[in-house]
Each structure stands twice: as structure tokens, then as C-alpha cells.
Write the C-alpha cells for this entry.
Amino acid sequence: MGATANVDLKDICIRFGSIRVLENLNLTIAPGEFLVLLGPSGCGKSTLLNAIAGLLDIAEGEIHIGARNVTWDEPKDRGIAMVFQSYALYPRMSVRKNMSFGLEVAGLPKAEIAERVAVAAQMLRLTELLDRRPAELSGGQRQRVAIGRALVRQAGVYLFDEPLSNLDAQLRAELRVEIKRLHARLGATMIYVTHDQIEALTLADRIAVMQGGVIQQLDTPMKVYREPVNRFVAAFVGSPAMNFLPGRIERDGFFQFPEDGRCALEGYRWRTSDFTGAATLGIRPEHILYGADAGPAPLIANVELVEPMGADTLVWCRLPNGAPLALRHAAEAALKPGDPLPVAFPADALSLFDDATGARL
């Protein structure tokens, strides 16, 4: 396979007329890294990927792949291969021909083309399908062919633009595993765009969470999940979403809920010091202590809905101050709507956000 390359983006600006999509964006991707660009529709993630690919001109800045400045190079000269959301296969060509066509146009020797196609087909479990046409394949098989077509290029960098979003849930899960295995075997640099947080958390070495053309947080999946830098990241990553509870941080080291109820903050990992005032307490459903584990001074939540999920159960409650609360319960939850449920929030699992800025405290 091709030599793995790093990618350096320096002060990238992209504008569509008077609209600024990306402004002074900097990002360095290490050789062999799997980086996921994650964010909602319109956040700029696909725009950035297309700029790296050379499919979109940038207004300012530089793009370096490996040791070369490729800012104004044609896509074919950048040492990249790309997999799109749509399979974009030639319907009249066999799988073999779809995978080899680009190499034939590039003038590679027939023996080398055959070897590259055979290796890629073996990696992606396509060997028995090489003589079929796209119409004879399932959606998952077609997307594997599209990945194989990129793979035979033996590029330094592979770009994926939401490649699984057209597939059903089971196929997405299967192909996610395929892509993870592929990265482990190739050790290639991969940049992957998605709005699906599960894909991001399972595939990435690092995740760049984007909103409004700005990278909000660039970190490992676990860091993004456990210590989101602001309320946007906290809300976007995680399913079901993080609970957000309003209140105030008091000088005595407690979080005071509206009306009654307090939460001790000893053990919380602060980013700022000496903050007091209006704040939001964030906690993920699986980190809430309940029942006997809630300790001697719990809040009493009122159960509103019990949702069995198989491996566990989601319990939707409401706190005395009216705030909604979702928690993960063991699979066999002997609870019903109307039941009181003691709950507590361990300080080391909390995220606290400044109400004024949304930033993590």
C-alpha cells in the first residue's frame, strides 16, 4: 500500500460569496491517524473534506499532505483517495472493472492492476463478487466496492464523506467494523466525515467536533464524551443526551438546585477556579446513582416513563423542581410511572457549564 502521509491545514478560509464557511481553521492530522470530523448538517465538515480533496478551492491558507504543499494541486495529484456517500459505481461494469477502471486510465500495467484489485477484494470480502454488476449487489456490498475502488489507489490519505449514511442500521454497524479493521491493517491516514456520533466514537483516534465552521473540541473519543469543553459538545455527543439541570454554584462547594436539593462538588475536575453563580449541571444517564446507591441525602425523582432497551432500561423521571431527568437502570427495572426514585450525582462524573458562555467550568 502507499506511503502513509500526514495532513496539515494552515489558516484555511473558505467563502461562498459573502458567506464565510470556514475562517482561519488550523488542523494537524498525524500519519496513520483516524480522524473523524463530527457535527450537524451545515457545520462545514464536508466542505473541509472537499477542500482537502481539491474539489473545492480555498480563499486563504495552505493544505500540506506529506511534505508537499498541495493547496493548488489537482485532486489526482494529491495522493488521496475518496469514498463518497453515494456509491457512484458504473452500472454496466463488473465489480472488477469498477475497481480497476481508474488504474487503467492512469496507465498502470495490467499485472499490477490485477494484483491490487485482488488484494483489495480479499480485504473487503469481495473476491466472489468480482464478476457481478452493481445491480446484483446489496447496498452494503456496493459500498464495499466503492471503498475497494479507493483502496486500489494505494493512497497516502483516505477521505470518507458519510459513506454509511444510506445504509440501514445493521449494515452500518457491519461496515463500521469493516472500516475499523481496514484501518488497523493498512495503518493509513483516514479522515472521515459523519453526523453519526456512534460512528465517531467507535472509529476515531481523535474526533473534531464542529459547529458553525469552527472546531469546538479536538480530542480522543473518551475525552470528548467524558469532558466536553462546552454545552454544545456535551449535547451533541451521547445517546440519550446528557441531562442538563439548572442551578447555581455556591461558595461552600455545592451546586444548589432551584427550590430544594443540593449536590456536593468535591472531587469535580475544575477548569476554572473560584466560580460562583448561575450554572448548568450536566450528567450522563449512565452516571446517575439511584435507589440504595444514591446515599443518605438523595434527591427524590418521580418516574414518568420506563423504556426497556434489552441490555438495560431507560427511566425518564422528573425532579421536584420540574427538571426532566433520564437515567440508565439495570435491565430488570421493577419501576412504574408514579414511583419515587432516590437519585444522586457523583461529582467525578459531572460536567458544569457557565450559563453565560456555555463553556465548561
